[in-house]
Design goal:
Layout lengths: L1 E4 L6 E4 L3 H17 L16 H10 L2 E4 L5 E3 L2 E3 L1 H12 L6 E6 L5 H13 L4 E5 L1 H6 L1
Length: 140
C-alpha cells in the first residue's frame, strides 16, 4: 500500500495499491480450481426400461382437442359441437384420475377461439391443459 501526500491546498490523499489483492485473488482461484473435482460425481440412478405396452396405454389415455380452421371442434377424432363440448369433456374425465388434456389449433386460427376452448376445458374439470403446436409436431 502506498500513500501520496498532496499539496498544501488539498491535504493528504490516500491511494490504495490493489495489485497485491489481485495477486491473492488469482492464487485463491488457482487453489480452488485444483482442489475441486473436475468431474462432478452424482448418485447412480437406474431408470426403468420403456415398454411399447406402456407407451400404447399412455396414448390411449391422451385426450387431444383439435380446433379446426373453420371453428369446429374435435375430441380425438370425434366431431363435437361447441354447445356439447363442456358436457362431453365432463363425461370423458369423470372416471379418470388424470385430468390432463391437450389443445391443438390450426395456424390460420385466431388465438381467441383456442382460448375459448381452453376456458371451457378448465370449467369442465381439466386441471392441466397443454398446447400442441403443429410446427413442433412435424419436427419430431
Amino acid at each position: 500500500m502506498g500513500i501520496s501526500l498532496g499539496s498544501a491546498r488539498r491535504g493528504a490523499m490516500a491511494e490504495m495499491n490493489v495489485v497485491p489483492l489481485i495477486d491473492i485473488l488469482l492464487v485463491l482461484l488457482i487453489i480452488f480450481m485444483v482442489i475441486s473435482p473436475h468431474v462432478p460425481a452424482g448418485l447412480p440412478a437406474v431408470l426403468p426400461a420403456r415398454t411399447p405396452e406402456a407407451d400404447q396405454l399412455r396414448r390411449e389415455d391422451l385426450v387431444v382437442v383439435r380446433v379446426l380452421a373453420d371453428g369446429s371442434l374435435r375430441i380425438d377424432s370425434d366431431a363435437v359441437p361447441w354447445q356439447d363440448f363442456h358436457g362431453r369433456l365432463e363425461d370423458i374425465f369423470k372416471t379418470r384420475a388424470s385430468r390432463v388434456a391437450f389443445v391443438q389449433g390450426e395456424s390460420s386460427l385466431e388465438f381467441a377461439v383456442v382460448a375459448r376452448a381452453v376456458d371451457i376445458m378448465r370449467g369442465a374439470g381439466v386441471t392441466t391443459v397443454g398446447l400442441m403446436i403443429p410446427e413442433l409436431e412435424k419436427a419430431r
